[in-house]
Amino acid sequence: QFPCGRRLPCDIYWHGVSFHDNDIFSGQVNKFPGMTEMVRKITLSRAVRTMQYLFPLEYNFYPRSWILPDESSFFEKEIRMMKDRDPSWKPTFIVKPDGGCQGDGIYLIKDPSDIRLTGGLQSRPAVVQEYICKPLLVDKLKFDIRLYVLLKSLEPLEIYIAKDGLSRFCTEPYQEPTLKNLHQVFMHLTNYSLNIHSGNFIHSDNANTGSKRTFSSILCRLSSKGVDVKKVWSDIISLVIKTIIALTPELKVYYQSDIPAGKPGPTCFQILGFDILLMKNLKPMLLEVNANPSMRIEHEKELSPGVFENVPSPVDEEVKVAVIRDTLRLVDPQKQKKKDVHAVCFLQLKKKKKKNFPNYSIESYKCHVIKYGLFLCCRSQTLEHVSGAKEELLDAGPPARLAHDVSTTTEAALPSPCLKQVFPKYAKQFNYLRLVDRVAALFIRFLGVKGTTKLGPTGFRTFIRNCKLSNSNFSMASVDILYIDITRRWNSMGIDHKESGMCWQAFVEAFFFLAQKKYKSLPLPEQVASLIDFCEYHLAVLDEKRLVCGRG
Ligand code: ADP
């Protein structure tokens, strides 16, 4: 921690909340620029909706959602039409304020007219979503799953999933929503922060009981009842990969604006919290993604009225410590340096053992190596500031052969990894979904001035011209009208008014419009893919020409 400011660069920066430090030029940061914005309820819903538009069957793991207030009348109209078509349909909806967390401001409704306008939707936009009425119950209680996912790199895409997660339970037996029970949060909302206030909340000291349990304990139970838990896991992995594929295009737009390509900057990684609900038929549904999941491994215990104490929470500890440990293992920037430091520690400890600690056991030696290894590897320069460390290092001599032995011992001393790579491991299965990433590459190319996330009218014109998209049927005047129409509409509903110009989502809309216009007879995904191919081809030709001119 650097309360008075940091003077030296680091290998790993661990930010508490979000990416906010503009003077980091190297190393790795544990947050991506723009991730907090990306996983807000509205932005996430929009990103998933783009993918649902292209691949409806692959993205049916996210409840149908509408954005308020922009789509209020559309929401009302659509529900009215669906009810007219099927009068027996009695849906329930859940309204969730944008940017809210811990169940804050969430409520259930039976009819679009029940949306509460008090408090001003304008000032606090929200997402209204179809409520999943038939969740899987355990002990008659609704529960959700918190799964930790490491996005290790955006380019190339690398995703890891923790083998175990948390299951967070409601504290009142579940009943399908009726007008009478809609308000019972302990029955319908699984948030720990809400249920902790219920008299029925049970703090658990093992992983299989209580209001917070490990997900593996639930899977064990399901397995003993004959459920195919491998299938549940593979559906969850697929949900996670598809969700990240939906987030990456806009994340790349944010990334280039904070860390422009070709300029010195850090690389990023991030631990995300995925909230997933299993339906009665065991299909996983995505509820939300958390950019800053709680890593607390303690909970508050009320000793006497008003007197609280933090006590360890074994369930949290079992899941979360492994996630942090493996993240550090995976992003370890200088494995070789670490090996060297381990060897140095080993030599030092051997000396100490001889002189001061004749009974120094191999176990305590391993602990020291792990402690020193992680600590010292955080920044080799900091060694100079650890009193005496430099001298000790110098007189330790070259560590060559021991390095290997010691690092093997250290790896062996750590528990087996809990983070499992799922991408690129399963890339072949999912790469066809990464169409919008290529649209993002086009958008970024024409953004022009680094540091922006919005495309100006000249940038849009250049995009059309360089990709040879205007012709006698689509004049440059029509291009300008398209730009103005779409940009004005998106900016009137956008939350971000800091910059003027065409935002990413507006560009996607314009691109899909152009694709539909150019390839009328094809289905949408093929229209979009064909237009991407067409643009990429013309840009490659242009680059080639420029290269030849440059050489000349
Ligand atoms: P928050 O960020 O405030 O926790 P969530 O989207 O996670 O908001 O919703 C809070 C809780 O509401 C979830 O943990 C879940 O129990 C319940 N919930 C949210 N969306 C749905 C839904 N579409 N269907 C059923 N339950 C839901």
Automatic annotation (TrEMBL):
Q: State the source organism's domain of life.
A: Eukaryota
Cross-referenced Pfam families: TTL
Record carries keyword Ligase: yes
One of its GO biological process terms is: microtubule cytoskeleton organization
Record keywords: ATP-binding, Ligase, Nucleotide-binding
Q: What PROSITE patterns does the annotation carry? A: TTL
Is ATP-binding set as a keyword in this record? yes
| Any one cellular-component term (Gene Ontology) | ciliary basal body
Alphabetical list of InterPro entries matching this protein? TTL/TTLL_fam (IPR004344)
Q: Which GO terms describe its molecular function?
A: ATP binding; tubulin binding; tubulin-glutamic acid ligase activity
User: What is the recorded name of this protein?
Assistant: TTL11 polyglutamylase
Native organism: Nothocercus julius
Upper taxonomic lineage: Eukaryota, Metazoa, Chordata, Craniata, Vertebrata
